[in-house]
Amino acid sequence: MLWALLLGVATGLIFGERVAFLQPIGTGFVKLMQITIFPYIVVSLIVGLGKFNPEQVKSILVKAATVMVTLWIVGLAAIWCFTLTLPKHDAGTFFSPALISPATSIDFVAQYIPDNPFASLAEGNVPAIVIFCIALGMSLIANKRKSQVLDFLEVVGQGLTVISKKVIAIFPIGIFAMSASTAGTLSVEQLHNLQVYWVLVLCLGLYLMLVLLPMLVAAATPIKYRDLIYVMRNAWITAFSTGNVFIVLPVITEGIKAHMRKIGRNDEQSDHIAEVLVPIAYTFPSLGKLTTLIFVMFAAWLTGNPVSFSDIPNVTLSAMLSYFANVHIAIPFLLDSLRIPADSYQLYLSMSVLSAKVVSPTTVVYIFAFVLLSIFYCRKQLHFKRLRSAYYVILPCALLPAFMVVSFTLNTQLAASSKAANEVIANMVVSDKVPAHVLNHVPKAYQSGELSLTNIDVIKRRNLLRIGYVVDNVPFSYFNQKNELVGFDISLAHKLASDLDVEVEFIPFKKYQLSEYLNKGYFDIAMSGLEINVADLTKVRFSHKVLELQLAILAKDYELARFTSIEQIRNSGDLSFAHMEYGPLLKQVSQRTSSIQFKQLTTLQDYFKSPEQFDGLVISAEAGFAWSMFYPEYGVVVPEGDMQKYPVGFAVAKRNLDLLSYVDAWLAIQQINGSIDNAYNYWILGQGTKSKETRWSVLDDVIESDEKK
């Protein structure tokens, strides 16, 4: 298996994406291994529990629970220690719809109570299956006729073991296929995006797998460290190669039983304990699963809102409860509970292939450690009085700081070399442009009022579409690092001009100048994330809504906790908020709550020039997150409660009904053909802001070198 793994990795590095065709072969072998798993869990639990008497079961389960809780405490302490190795990092992130969606709830009842055991078997609901088998196995303990059923099931279990061994004999082929396809197709972008997380989880996993767990077993039991590593090797390599622990459960059970026979410590009770506790250990949260908790801490760090010490108890409790369910349920739940954008979960999925290479083997080592410690605890053979015990207790304590220093050093260097969030948004560009002129003032020729009546024919005759924009209205209209005018509305303006087959000219205005500049004909259309509000309806004509935005509050990171709910804001005493829009809406708030005052700014930049004058800035969540990328010391919060949404659109002069009719029809077309969704995904959600790099391989380098010669 080890040779197959090494050969597969080498093949993937040499041939790159050319060996992607091997992935279905590896998947087929995994499914082949899974054939016996569910029947094996059912048989082993029922037989293992059914053969005990009531006193034995009670003693075993209590002692096993004690061992499990102890390993949880020790493991979680190590996990929290490694979160301290994240370097200082102030970063913003693009907006995520997670900020306005309700938190995910986990249905523990459906996960753990098998109302239909056959449905649980069909759906692969392992926790419910285990609960059912435990209940059935314990119900047979006092049954005098149980031997007939148990003997039959034991024979079935032996048959399943034979099948597993036959499959394992040819499994190196599957390991080679999976290793080669993974090493050949894993993109450079995936590694680059999450390199800090990968270093973090790798150092943590190595510490748990090679230091903490095996040394605890060596310290408390007669099993030697080297022997334990040797007996775990097959299950460990298989789990590493496949990223799947489920398929190696029979291998773990047989490995424990075989090693107990080898050292002369086996008996019928130890075999039964192994058969019962292995599937139970897999069902309950393992330290392997809990290592993925480090991703939640990483995601919080990446978005500039690291988890504080005061949050650790709540996060730990939530994690322990949620990890009783599937990892893919637990992580989104924890991200939502910490108000981390749910899009972060996509990062986890993109790295799941790599992280599984640590999580799965760590889970294997945890199951071995848990079962072996439980067996010797039940035999009353745990002790720490030997010199070897002291050595294996002191060594993990000494090595923990060393692993942490390595993790911190590597991550500090990686964080320093990674691309800052403000560089990402500052380098965004409009992909499809038409010839454009960007002005910083209104030309005198436009101020005579002769251009106040505009229609499509006039625009096409002059071969110029004049667009009004608000300066520094990120992400709708702003200047990038190359001093190019870009943004959501700017990209749509180029698209509109392209469809009209004319050039485009951009003219700046301030929000309070909207109706004056439009009605005097300084520009044809205003496009800059404009709020469609009641007050302006009598002054200008608005198009159909382009987007619906969510009101939010932007403030310094340490101030955000004051604004988590509407009720909390009302009870906070005198508050002063800045804003650039939302006048009618905020006026109603001031009338209802006299302690809250609002001051309108000319530009959003005015707030960042003197933030000490205000408690926060009322802004859309979509824009607020974009601004937080330029100013990472700021964060965005959407208070719980009746925090309103509002529409944004384009505006034209009151007289220009023909132009308005064209714009509305054009917007309808763009909504249907996906142009607006594409612009939203790029400028608001930040999707596609990083270019995809070509996957490297040794063979490509050789071919390129030959071509140069």
Give an overview of the whole structure.
There is one protein chain. The model has no long low-confidence stretch (mean pLDDT about 85). The radius of gyration is 32 Å and the shape is elongated. The longest helix is centred in the first third of the chain and has 40 residues, at about 145-185. Strands 1, 2, 5, 6, 7, 8, 9, 10, 11, 12 and 13 form an 11-stranded mixed beta sheet that branches. Strands 3-4 form a two-stranded antiparallel sheet. The protein has 32 helices and 13 strands. About 60% of the residues lie in helices and about 10% in strands. The chain has about 700 residues and is α/β, with parallel strands linked by helices.
Largest sheet: 11 strands, mixed
Total strands: the figure is: 13
Total helical elements: 32
Looking at the structure, what is the overall shape?
elongated
Coarse structural class: alpha/beta
Low-pLDDT runs of 5+ residues are none
End-to-end Cα distance, whole Å, is: 40 Å
